[in-house]
Amino acid sequence: QVQLVESGGGLVQAGGSLRLSCAASGRTARFYLMGWFRQAPGKEREFVAAVDWRGFSTYYADSVKGRFTISRDNAKNTQYLQMNSLKPEDTAVYYCAADSRYTIWPPPTDFGSWGQGTQVTVSL
Q: Residue 54: how many CB atoms within 10 A of its CB?
């Protein structure tokens, strides 16, 4: 398993942008699938985006396609989520996730390692 620490959440107006970062520790972290999930108040956690271990393939929820971009820098063991054109409905706690089953694609939804979460609030 790897340990994950998110940063970059905050309050932004609708139409604005934020970039989330997630630092992974562990010498095999670069070989893990990585992804982002979110959970809004009163709702179940949902998949947002994932990137394969090489950073070549990405996968997005329909609700964020064209607005969010996931990427990773294996030299830094860090993944990112660039969020543009934010909407109030994007308000949620965002969780970084990683999984050692790097051969599975499209990615699974039951990732094995999770960060503590970072709050993103989008105001009107």
A: 11
pLDDT in tens, 22-65: 999 988 888 899 999 999 999 999 999 999 999 999 999 999 99
- The amino acid present at 115, given as its one-letter code, is G
Vertex 97: Cα angle to 58 and 33 (nearest 5): 45
Are 5 and 98 in contact by the 8 Å Cβ rule? The answer is: no
Structural contact between residues 14 and 86, judged by C-beta atoms closer than 8 angstroms: yes
User: Exposed, middle or buried by CB within 10 Å (0-12, 13-18, 19+), for 83?
Assistant: buried
Q: Which amino acid is at 103?
A: T
Residues 6+ apart with CB under 8 A from 43: 92
Say if strands 113-114 and 118-123 run parallel, antiparallel, or are unpaired: unpaired
